[in-house]
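Re: How this chain folds, sequence and tokenised backbone to follow
Notation: Tokens come from a learned vocabulary of local backbone shapes, not from coordinates.
Start of record: The labelled sequence and token lines come straight after this line.
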Amino acid sequence: MNVVVIGRGKVARAIQARLGKSSHRVKVLASRGRLPKIGDDVELIVLAVRDDAIADLARRLAATRARPLGAAVIHVAGALGPEVLGALSGRCAGIGRAHPLASFASRQRFPDLRGALWLMDGERVAVARARQLGLALGCLPRRWPGVTPAAYHAAAALTANGAATLAAASARVLVGAGAPPREVARAVGVLLRSVAENVGRVGLPEALTGPVRRGDARTVSRHLHALAPWGQEITELYRVCALAQLPLAAALGEASAADLARVRRVLGPKRPRRRRV
């Protein structure tokens, strides 16, 4: 398949790098400035740009003769559906969306996409060609019709962005406690990898480990006291995460209800809800 990727960001570069090792042909174009003519042999155009630039880029493509009518057009934004490409509807082979559920943090080092979810939606031809692209990248193409894009992307952000935030907080505490700064990121990264492996292999809530799962209120209390020098931001992050573990621990059933209640008391009272004005 002949693919054109419009965009020069992290996802665009990752697609280019992965497809370069396959039988598919790929060309990357800048999204800014005048769009060059796209060859008539191109079967799929991938818009790999910022979410707020997709609709405008679609309108520009629809208004130019540089676009081959036989090409399908997809975007790779997780929070948006195919409708953001509405300007191209009826003016190409089909419109769609295909989102790789992976974390793209660098323009030089790309994630291993083998087995990553490749969530597709859109018109038939666009989805069929998106599926070919996903398979070439090593992804797992799927359609989840009942999942709204915003909820899907928010869930992804909880894992990807939340994990990076927790790792940064953990690294801050470790360095402050005396760990060698150069070794901390790697150590935390290996720990995160083991968590990811547990989630994939044993599932949820079984992947939960630690004192909350065991109903160990004494250790939780020690943690809170140890984190106190780092201020409310770190202790509150720990507290909120620990509270979120309680339902998982209860579902596992290893700790007694009394032990989990003690953990709950150590974590402090529930924050009162603000009244709406």
Observations:
- The domain at 149-266 is CATH 1.10.1040 (N-(1-d-carboxylethyl)-l-norvaline Dehydrogenase; domain 2).
- The mean pLDDT is 93.
